[in-house]
Specification:
The chain is of the alpha/beta class. It has a single domain, classed as 3-Layer(aba) Sandwich (Rossmann fold). The protein contains nine helices and twelve strands. Strand 9 and strand 10 form a beta hairpin. Helix 2 runs parallel beside helix 5 and helix 6 packs parallel to helix 7. The N terminus is likely disordered. S-adenosylmethionine binds next to helix 2. InterPro entries: Methyltransf_11, Methyltransf_Superfamily, SAM-dependent_MTases_sf.
Length: 303
Amino acid sequence: MGSPDDAAATGGAIDSANMINSVDAVDGIADDQQPPAYGYLDIDPDTARRASRTYWDDAAADYQAEHGTFLGDSDFCWSPEGLRESELRLLGDVAGRTVLEVGCGGAQCARWLRRHGARVVGFDLSGGQLAQARAYTARTGIEVALVQADAVALPFADESVDVACSAFGAVPFVADSGAVMREIARVLRPGGRWVFSTTHPFVWCLPDDPDENGLRVFHSYFDQRAYTEHDDSGQAIYTETHRTIGDRVREIVAAGLILHDIIEPEWPAGEERTWGQWGPVRGRYVPSTSIFVTSRPTARQLS
Ligand SMILES: C[S@@+](CC[C@H](N)C(=O)[O-])C[C@H]1O[C@@H](n2cnc3c(N)ncnc32)[C@H](O)[C@@H]1O
C-alpha cells in the first residue's frame, strides 16, 4: 500500500467529485518522488487490471532488487515475517503434483516447488515480473513453466491442478477477489488445496508505517473501496483492494471451497528487518499478514 497518511500530512485538496486527494508538493524531493494523489474508490475490474499491470511492469526490477535476496532465488516465502513453506508445509507433499503459482512475480516459490518434485506453472499479469522470473531461471538453471494471465480469468482447464498457491500474488490487487476464488475452485481437482497469503484486513485501518505512527486507527475497517494512486491526468496507477475477514470467508465458501485455517503470523522475535509497513514495532501488536488454507471438497466430503 502507498502512504496515504504521509500524503494527508502534507495537506492538499480533495476533489469531491472523484474522491481523489491531491497532495501538496514536498520541498526537497525530486518531482518523480513526490507523493502521488490518492483516493478510496469503487474500482472496476478493467481499471484494476490496467493499473496493476502497468505498476508491476514498472516496479518489477526495483521490487526484485529490494526483496530478491530475502525471498531467495528458489525459496518459498509466504510473507514479510519470513514464514517459509519448508517449515509450515501448508501445501502437503508436492512431489509429482501439478501446482499452480498465482501472481508468481519472480517465480521463486515455483522454483522451490520444482526442486521438491512438483510440475509447476507460475503465472502473472505482469510481463515485467515474468521477465524477472526468466532472468532467475537463467541464473539458477531451474526451469518452470511461465504464463502471462489474469487471476480472474484463468487459461487452464477444469480440474487440471492438484495444488494452487500464492504469496501475495493477485488477491490484494484485483477488484473481484471472489472471481479469483471461483477460478481456482474450477481448475482444482477435488481434494486439491488452495493456500494464499495476503495483507491482513486489519492493516486497512492503520497508516502504512512499521513504526509507532502505524499504530493509530485512521481509516475505517469497513470501507471496502479500493486504495488508488493517480497520475496527473487522474488515471489510476496503483490499486489495492480490501476485504474484511468476513468477506474473505464468504468468498471462499461461495466458491464451494472448504476453509481449514486462517494463519495470522506474529512478527518473529529478534527480527529487526522491515518491509513496507511490516516490522518489529507494529508487528508486536497487530498482524499484517493472513494466510488462508482452503481445499476443494472431495465427492465424499460433498455427500
Ligand atoms: C507483491 S507481488 C508478489 C509476487 C511473488 N508472489 C512474491 O512473493 O514476490 C504481487 C504480484 O501479483 C501480480 N498480480 C497483480 N494482479 C494480478 C492479476 N490480476 N493476475 C495475476 N497476477 C497479478 C503482480 O504482477 C505481482 O507480480
